[in-house]
Design goal:
With 147 residues, this protein is of the alpha+beta class. The chain is 29% helix and 26% strand. The radius of gyration is 16 Å and the shape is flat.
Length: 147
């Protein structure tokens, strides 16, 4: 397996691991009275549409999600390694997981959607989490691509 494939697999595993931890951890969840999801307080997600994390932080706002929206989604679009768009907000967990599954759908790293490494012309990476404003701090949900 060449170095590019190994790097792609490591990123996919890190993305999947982070997402699964975020979605399975009830302590990070939004459970209200009695620790029962049926009494959960509505999730709040940082919502923005910007071209940098800094602008997302200053121009975005906290939104209370609808009852069927149990995840916050982060989507990062890059061209030639430059961030073109950062979009965050509420999402149903099924829709968020479906979007995230497209990150590394193809075994060949040249045909996946999430390709933030140098040498690729475009990349779309998505991540899900389920605690209040979890997408506001990109360090929590963005994989380290420096490897």
């Amino acid at each position: 397996m060449n170095n590019n494939n190994q790097q792609q697999q490591q990123q996919q595993q890190q993305f999947e691991s982070t997402s699964q931890q975020n979605l399975k951890n009830p302590a990070s969840g939004n459970y209200g009275a009695y620790g029962n999801p049926a009494y959960a307080a509505p999730l709040k997600c940082w919502t923005c549409d910007a071209d940098s994390f800094e602008l997302c932080g200053t121009s975005g706002r906290e939104i209370q999600c609808q009852a069927n929206e149990k995840s916050c989604e982060l989507e990062i679009r890059q061209r030639q390694g430059v961030i073109m768009q950062i979009r965050t907000g509420c999402k149903s967990t099924d829709a968020c997981k479906n979007n995230m599954s497209n990150n590394f759908r193809n075994r060949n790293p040249h045909y996946t959607q999430c390709r933030p490494e140098a040498g690729y012309t475009h990349s779309v990476c998505r991540q899900c989490c389920d605690s209040d404003n979890c997408v506001k701090d990109p360090e929590v949900v963005v994989p380290d691509n420096a490897n």
